[in-house]
Amino acid sequence: MSDVPEDANAGCPGTGSAGAGKASGCAGCPNQGACATGQGPPPDADVPKIQDRFSRIKHKILILSGKGGVGKSTLTSNLARALASDPSKQVAILDVDICGPSQPRMMGVEDEEVHNSADGWTPVGIQPNLTLMSIAFLLGDKNDAVIWRGARKNGMIKQFLKDVDWGEVDYLLIDTPPGTSDEHISLVQFLLQAGPLDGALIVSTPQEVSLLDVRKEVSFCIKTKVPILGVVENMARFVCPNCAHTTLLFPTSTGGAEKMCEDSNLELLAQLPLEPALAKALDNGEDFFETNPDSTLAKSFLDLAEKVKAKLH
Question: What CA–CA distance (Å, rounded) separates 135 from 176?
Answer without folding.
Answer: 12
